[in-house]
Structure formats: structure tokens, C-alpha cells
Amino acid sequence: MHFTRFSIAAAALIALAACAPPGQSGSTEANATGPIKIANVNAQSGQLSSLGQWEHKGVKLAIDEVNKAGGINGRQIKLDLFDSQGDPTVGTNVARKISAESYIAMLGTAESAVTLAMAPILKDAKIPNITSGQSPKLAELKSPFLFLNAPTSVTFDETLAKYLVDDKGMKKIALISNNGAYGAGEHDAFLTSLKSRSVTPVADEVVTPDQKDFNSNLAKIREQDPEVLFVGAEEVQSGLIAKQARELGLKAVFAGGAPMGTDVYATTAGLKNAEDTVVSSPYLSNEASEEIKAFAAKYKAAYNEDARMHVAKAYDGASILIEALKQTNGEGGQKLADAIRGVKRAGLLGNYDYDANGVGIHATKIGLVKDGKVVPEAAS
Amino acid sequence: MKRLIWLVPLAVAAWLLPYGLGGYAIHVADVAIIFAILAVGLGLTMGVAGQINLAQVAFFGVGAYTVAILTTQAGLGFWTASGLALLAAVVFGVLVGIPALRMQSHYLGIVTLGLALAFTNWVTNAHIAGRAEGISDIPVPPMFGIDLSSGYLFYYVELIVFAVALVFALLVTRSPLGRRLRAMRDDDLAAGALGAEIPLLRMTAFVLSGLYGGLAGILYAGLIRFVAPESFNIANMFLLLAMVIIGGRSSILGCVVGAVALSLVREALLDASGFAQLGYGLVVVLVVVFAPKGLAGLPEQLRSLRRGRGGGSRAQLGPFRPYDAVSPAAGEEALEIREVTMRFKGLVALDAVSLTVPTGQIRGIVGPNGSGKTTLFNVISGFYRPGQGSVVLSGHDVTGMAPYQLSLRRVARTFQNLRLFEDLSVRENLLLGLDRTRTWWIWRYPSLPWKVLGYERELRRRAGDLIERFGLTEVSDAGPRSLPYGVQRRIELARAMAMSPTLLLLDEPAAGLNGEEVRQLADIVRSIRDSGVTVIIIEHNMGLVMSLCDQVTVLSSGRVIADGRPADVAVHPDVVAAYLGDSMSAPTEESAEAAVEEATR
Amino acid sequence: MQVFLQTLIGGVTFGAVYALVAMGFSIVYRTMGLVNFAHGSVVMIGAYAASTFYMASKLPFAVAIVVAIAVTALIGLVIERFLRPLENKDFTLMLIGTIGFGAVLEAGAVLVWGATGHAVPSPVATGPIDVAGIRIPTYSLLVIAVAAAATGLLALFLQRTKRGAAMQAVAMDHQAATAVGIHVGRSNAMAFAIGAGLAALAGSLIGPMLYVNPTMGGTLGIKGFAAAMLGGFGSMPGAIVGGLAFGLLDSFAAGNFQEYSELVTFLVFAVIVMIRPTGIFGEATVNRA
């Protein structure tokens, strides 16, 4: 029994050695006609699905616009959505899938860990990827095919530290962050910015992304009576931390990155608790400029909900890709990556000007939360 | 094994598969194989051995992470790291398995789940494990110049590993070890009484789990070359669980089918969402409700549906072929019980009970309900450790020994309420009794598998002999539950005799038998005695006791109130009083036992 | 000392919630022998129901909770019909079957309410009470009080009413209960409805403390389950003690072990359950597993 199976296997092995090993024959040459295939990869299920759904709406808005206006030099863009489930393994699967099915560019994901996992495969396949992640590690990869549609945490937190320490002279700073990819990135970036100003935080608490009760961590922070509490966590958790901190009587100013400029943060914390939170973000509000106002109106008309940063940056990313595609006439690969790097665009999040690491925006603005809405800080 | 012949064309097809697949499809196949290996491991632990293990995905993670850490941080070669990773996964498996020694079922489930969460938490925090962003740049495994970064060539590596893993799993399930694991799943007490070392077997299950998890993890590291905490989260554990359940958990091949099927479904849903999760959940619920044995159990289910519900078994017992009589050994004492006292939460079930049973005797134990008879058996067979006193077996003190140890010292027993393994055939029930190996014997599985097969053949030959002796030929391949009560009693007796005991304990063997069956039973027991086995029998059928037993001991309220020849005992005034007194008023022993039994499971 | 006491406050508040979740697990388990892993998702449904009534139809919070309990209990009856074939089956089937059902509920919530979720404004306007520097949020007091009241009511129901006594009887002995004419099916449905109601109560109380979204049930379910086990699975006092114990364990681990808190919590949990497998109060059902 075993021997028969073994001998069959051996025979097959010999047969295999005799002929060529399997593999895809011929390269997937980019077809110069028909629709241009673009993949949007984002979590559509699981914990992070709300993020993924916003991303998709922003991307779709940009693509629909260009298609309606005649497409890329007459060719329509075909946008397909893939569910990464927020899982890097699934991400690598999708990366292989889009390279096998000759998509010429990819938009997303919103989770740095997933994008990091996908990057090597996309680089090998020469598929440019404009991600919504903002981990400094994405830039450290120095992949010529990876572009960020937002600044990295380093920029967010450097701006924040400059405002808090240099402009406002606050030195008693406490940190609370989660150990997820986003929280840990924020924590490390802000700490580096503080160090460069020789400020040592009075407290540095780390929580888990699932944690809901921060009494213990906040009580420890309260003992140090800090002027500023830096929060490095996603929207909901930031809100819960702010709420519980105020309930504990912590008087410190809250400060953080883009998540704290959202309505989710403000409503979770309670509008009163969120008041005067300092936010460092390239996209402060839907009223920040005329372009943004127009975009927000367009978005509202399309989806009947308010625009937000995730939507705007996905829209920016898609717009950059469209502009680059127009230059390459729908061609992908190295040429498209070079074109993206060459795009200079005044986007919703700021002026895109890509450097060698694929970072396009190098500045954020400081805003303050007033009655649940972010208003630009006038002083800076 | 012959039935597995159809695997051959399948194997050839698997070997030729890459020629028909595109670059991405082969990657999907690679991932599916990894999940299939994981599912086989989970099937062995959960389906075959009945150990609820929700940490399989963590074993997977330990394997993958160990490879990642050792290759990127310690600079070890891929295969060296893999060897260590396998070891790490097995060690972790043993650690996670330790709680199984104390608890089962949902308790074990939530504890293993908690430990899996603890693992994820650790890799999310530890700098060495790359924290939340994971570890990238795991090197391509070297293989004599073959480029394994190609999904096609890696497929063959996986296929070979998978084939070996599958064959090994099939060897385990279709041999003495697998039978013991299944017996343990069905009824661990009865399995222990048959000589299965329950604690070691449970650990074996977790070692297997760790082994398969680690193996899958290594392949994962080699294929994806990137690890991150999210890939080993609970959602994937539940996916794995669904693979095993949908495929059919007690069938290894079913697990493989389930894993491949769900991997493909998951793939198909990659670019569809919204209703996908809804559909996935519904499918799982429907399978569990309508096809609890999964895809593997479907053919059987359809067959029994077509056959209809009418056909109860009309099986007939054949005649019993008596044992060869041997001349009785000189008056040595087979069993001596000295002053044994057993308490359950204040209730004294046995109160300084002493009795001596000479070799070659049939001893009857009688007494009203709740007088401590079954408790006495449970003490002799090692289920209970007596508070005071000692049990001496042929001159050796065996007090407090575990059931399997006593079983190996050739003490066999039957149970009052029949404890046959329902998921095993009659033949397999007997094979369990015949298998007298210790658990450490299983080192032969990885090193000398042909010896295992040889031993199995020998066991089957002896089982055939036993089946013929006890007249069970007609029912040998049926499931015990489908058989009439009298037949089941006969099977349990045969199973006890399969252990070639020197001391046989029969707990109400005549309960539920008709007159003819009782007569046959008496003949069988006499023949067993004549072959040199000492028999102790608890029985309420006084006619049988009077005619069969050489000596009778009467228990009442946990004390020996009479002991002597049947005729003398029957007229003893205390005995008469005990039987005429309110014998129904003291049934508390049963409930106390049930409670203790529950607590020790 | 302040940190210690403040940690205690947090632990007890969340412990009260875990206790409610654990009670829901336990009442279903003791009556019908079903380990319901979809319970966390039922909590989520309850939270959505309460917050939707509270925010959209501007009902007073207390009324919204009552309506949510009623609605969720009704949903519970429907779920029970689906899960009935699984009752008293072997554990593996219940495990995956109820997990599957949980996935269905979660997907349903995404379809009905969307993936984003919403924050629920606190129904209590007064600020926290300050006792020597220890701040006790008034809402926490409300949660603890409501949890205690619910526990008391449930105990009264089980011990003083005919229906409750029937459920106790079914919990103790299935067959004997049938023999004396108790409708086991009805009793089971009742138990499930009460379990769902408790889940809804827990969910609606959690809403203003946390954030309501479709995936909120996962962690709550696992922690509530662990709490039930810590106290003694199927025992009602056990669920309460286990819930509080788990809440405290959780909050002290967070304070002392930071990002490793989850690791510590579950290791400690595993060790405790190893030492005392039947929990603090022992398993209340007779030979069901």
C-alpha cells in the first residue's frame, strides 16, 4: 500500500524532472486598451471595517468622478474592492491575487500592519500602492512602489510637540497609548519628539487595544498632575480615555493625532470632556478651506453622511493615482510609480510632494476641539 | 487500510495540480494545505481525543514566530530554526495541555482560549517578536538550489510534508493509540479501567496538536515570510474550528476536506463582503444542526435516512465456548481488603470494611441499595482512594493506585450501567481490552511504524478469537448502542475478559437479562472461574447469587454484617432485618458518588 | 493608596457588567445545559436596541432599557428555537454552533446599523462623587445599583414564583421535572429569554460607558464567560462573585502590568481554574457536560 503510493509519487517525480517545472508562462503584459484595473484593499469585516468602508467611499467618489468625465484619456477605470479583514495574512493573499490578475495599482489599506505585509509582494510585482497607513515603518521600507497619502506619525507628533512644548511651554507631559500598530507608532514618535526637546514624560502608560477600564492607569497619571495628556489610540479608545480621565478629575489638556479630531472621539468622550483637545492633523475640519467645503458637500450628496479625514485622504490618494495615470496613459509598473512620485498636487490634506521614501505630505496643522468640531488654532 | 486506496489517484492529481493553476491560484492552494495540516492536528486533539483545544492557532503562531525570530534575530538557518520551532510548539502544546489534567469540556475550552490570547498579547508587546507590526523579511528556505520563493515549488514541499503528516495521522487513528484516544473521548472512566493512562493520553493529544500546529507554522513562515499577531487571532481559530466541524471532526480525511473547502470559500468571499459573514455564520449553524458529523458523516446519514427508522437489530448471540479449566492454585489470597473507610462529604459509604477473597473463588456481594457495594468496587478498581485502610492484591499493597495501574495488574471490571464505548464498534471495544501496552509504547509510532502495524494485526487476530469464544460474531462490527441489552452485557463481560484478568469484578451483570440469559451468564462465570480467575460479583438476583457464589458477603450501611456460605448467610438474622428494613431510605450514596464523579472529571 | 482605591472603583464597575453577562450565561447553562457563545453578540444587540430607542425615539433612559430588554428577550425566544437542536448536545457542537450564530447576529447588526457604531451620551448629568480624592462616577453607582437590583429580582423570581421554581427543578433534574409535569421546553425558552434580557440589561448599561458597535460583543462575551467560570459555572451567586473578581483582576493587571495585562489576566485565570476547576461556588448543574 505504502509502496504503491511511494512508487507512484516517485514516478511522478521523475516525470516532473523530465519536463519543465510548472509555472506561469509568459509575463502579464499590460493591455493598452479596455478598462484600467485598480484594486482597493481595505477591511470590510471585523473590528476595523468602519475605517475600511470610509476609505472605500472616498476612493469610489474620486474614481466615479473621473469615469463620468470620460476616464483616463478615454479609458474607464475599473475599481474592485477586496476585503483584507484587517489580517496581514489575508493581505498577502490579496497582494498575490491583484498581481496575478494584473491590476496596475492598489489603493489602501488603512492598517499599517497589513500594508507592511503586502509591500514586498507589490514591490516584486511592480504595482504602485498608495496606502492610508501612517506608520513610520512604511517610510523606512523605502520601497519605490509604496506611497503614503498622509504624513507619518513622526510628522503628526513633531508638530504636536512643537506646539505644546515650544509654543505653549508645557513641560509636564504624560503619555497613554495602546500597544497596537497605530498606538505604538504614535507613542514612539511622540517620545522621540519630546526627547529632542529634552523633555521627559512624567508618566508613560501603555494599555491594550481592547482595554475599556483605564481607572488604574489614569489614577497613576493623576498623581503626577500633568499639564498635558498625550493619547495615542484609535478614535473610540481615545474618547473613552478622555471621558474617564475627566471623571477622575484629571485637568490636563488632551493632545493627540488625527483620531482625536473626529466626531467619534468627541461623542464618545462627551462634548464637554473633549473640549479644547489639541489635535495635530492635516485635515482639521470640513470647513477648513473652500476646496474642502466643496468636497464635503460633494461627499454628503453622494453618501448622505459627513466627510471626514479618512474619506478625504482616500480621495486624495485616488486623485493622485488618477493624475499619474493620465500622464502614463494608463500604463503601470515603474513608469506609474515614477509618475506618482512626480505628482505635485494641492490636495485636501495639504500639498503633496513625494520624497524618496514615498511620503507626500510633510506638515500637519494644529487644531482645537470646540463643541465637538475642530477649529484651526489661530496662534500657530 | 485497503479502503484508503482511492487516495492514490487523489495524490497523483495533487501532484499534477500545479500544471493547471495560475500564479495566484497556486498560492491559494499553498495556504489551503497549511490550514489542512492545522485542521488535521485539531481533528486529532478535538475530534479523536475529545480535548477541547482553542489554542491550536497559538501553536501555529508559536511555530511561525519561532522560525521568524530565530532566522531574523539569531541568524539561524531556516531549517535549523524549523527544528527548534517544532520543539517550541510541542513544548507550548504540553504547557497548554496541563490544564486538561484537571478539567475538560467548556472549562478546558475557555482556559485554552485564554492562553491563546495570552500568546497573542505577548507577541504584540515583545520587541523580539516585532510587536504589533510583526516580523518581515524571513529568508526563503534553501533547498539544494531549488528556489522555494516560487509558490509552485513550495507547493511540492508542502505536499510532501502534508502527505507524511496525513499518513501519520491516519496511522495514529487506525491503531491502538487512536482507539484509546477515542475511548477516552467517549468515557474516560471506562477507558481508565481498561488500562488507558488518561493523564498521559491527554498530554499526548496536546503534543500531537502542538506538533501539527508547529509544522503548519513553519510552512507558513516559509510561504508568507511575514508574521504578525493578527494572523493568529481568535477569528482564525474559529475559522479553523468551523473547518473541522464542517468537515467532520472525528474523521481525519473529513477535516482535510473541510479545511480545503472553507479555504476556497474564504477565497471566494475575498472581494465580496456584507452578506458574506452572514452566509458563513448560517452555513455553520445549519451544518451543526442538520449534519452534526459534518461532510464526512453525510454519506452515513443519507444511508440511514434511506433505510428508514424501522430496522432495529435482531442480532443473535452465539453459544459461549468455555475456557480450558486449570487446576486451582493453592490457597493464596487474591484480594484482601483491610479496614477500608470511605467518606463523601460527611456520609460514610464504607465503614471499616474488611474481607478476604481466596484465589479461584466466586464471591458474591449483596446488600440493600446504598449499602456501599459499588463504592467498594470503585475502591478496588482504583476510582476512589479510600480515606483509611488498604487494598492488597495477591500480597501487594495497591491502595490508591490509579485505575489503569490496577488494570495492568490484571484487575478487570464491568459497570452497573454499562459503559461500552458507543462510538466504537464491538470489535474495537474488545481490542481496547486486549491492548495491554503502556502509553510510552507510542514512541514506536514515529520511529518504527511497521511494528505498530504488526502489533495491530496481532491484536485483531486475538480479537477474532475472543469474538468467536463469546459468540459475538454476528454483532462484531455493529455499534453497541444498536444492540439489545443482553448482548451489551455479554460484550462488556467479553471486554473485561479481553484483559486476561486474575481478578474480575462484575457489577450487577444479570440486571436486565431474561431467564435464559441469566443461565448462560452463570455458565460463563463458572467457566471463567475454572480458568483460574477470581470473580467478585455484585448482584440483586438472589437466585443467581445462591446458585453461583462460593461465598457471600453482605453489606449494609457501609458495614459487613455477614459473611459465609450462601445458605448460611441467607438465614442470618441481621441480613433478614436489613432486607426487610427500609432499604429505600438510604439512596444517598448514589447521589454523592455522582457529585464526586462530576468533580473529578 | 489612591491609585489602589481608584483601581478598585474601576474594577467593581466593570465587574458589575461582567457579572450581568455571566449571569446570562449561567441561567441558560443551568436550565438547558447550553453553553451559549453567542451571548456576547446578544449583549451587543441589547446595547444597540437600548441606545437606538434612547437616542432616536428620545425615550427616557430607563424606559429605553425596559423596551430593549423586552425586545431582546423576544429575539432570544427566536434564537432559542434555532439553537434548540443543540441543547444538551456535546460541547464542541454547541461551541461552534453558537459561535456561528454569534457571527450571524454580528453581520445582521452591520446590515441594520452599519459598521461604524455610535457613542451613547450619558443619561446621568451629575458629576462624579469625590470621596477623599477617590472619584466615583455617578453612572458607575447607577450601574452597580441596577445590577444588584436585577440580581435580587432574579433571585426572587427563581425562589418565590411557580415559574421560577419550575426552572430550578429543570436545572436540577431534567427527567424528574418532566415526570412531575413541568413543560421543559417552555422552561428552557423562558430561561433563554431571561438570559437574553440580562444580556440586554448589561448591553444597555454598557452603552453610555463605552461605545456601541457590532464587534463589541466579542471581548465582553469572553470575559463574561471567564467570569462565570471563575465563580462556578451555572451558579448565580458564583456569576456575581466571578464577575466582580474578573473585573478586579482585569483592572489591577492593567495598572500593574501595562501592555502585558491581558497575558497576566489570562494566566492568573488559568491558574485559579486549575486549582479550583469548579469555581468558587462549584458547578450548579448535575452531570450535564
Describe the structure.
The complex is a heterotrimer of chains A (380), B (601) and C (289). Chain A has 380 residues and is of the alpha/beta class. In chain A, 47% of the residues lie in helices and 17% in strands. Chain A has helices at 2-18, 49-68, 88-100, 112-124, 136-140, 153-167, 181-196, 215-224, 235-247, 263-269, 271-274, 290-303, 309-328, 333-342, and strands spanning 36-42, 77-83, 105-108, 129-131, 146-148, 173-178, 203-207, 228-232, 253-256, 278-281, 344-346, 351-353, 365-370, 373-376. In chain A, the strands form three sheets. In chain A, strands 7-6-8-9-10-13-14 form a seven-stranded mixed sheet, with helices on both faces. Chain A has a five-stranded parallel sheet with strand order 2-1-3-4-5, sandwiched between helices. A two-stranded antiparallel ribbon of chain A has the order 11-12. In chain A, strand 6, helix 7 and strand 7 form a beta-alpha-beta unit. The model of chain A is unreliable at 11-19 and 24-30 (pLDDT under 50). In chain B, the strands form two sheets. Chain B has a six-stranded mixed sheet with strand order 6-7-8-3-9-10, with helices on both faces. In chain B, strands 2-1-4-5 form a four-stranded antiparallel sheet, covered by helices on one side. Chain B has 601 residues and is α/β, with parallel strands linked by helices. In chain C, a hairpin with a 2-residue loop joins strand 2 (129-131) and strand 3 (134-136). In chain C, 74% of the residues lie in helices and 3% in strands. Chain C has helices spanning 2-32, 39-56, 61-83, 91-113, 138-160, 162-172, 174-179, 184-209, 217-231, 236-257, 261-275; strands at residues 118-119, 129-131, 134-136, 211-212. Chain C has eleven helices and four strands; from the N terminus they run ααααβββααααβααα. Classes of the chains: A alpha/beta (380), B alpha/beta (601), C mainly alpha (289). Chains in contact: A-B, A-C, B-C. The interface between A and C is large, with 36 and 39 residues.
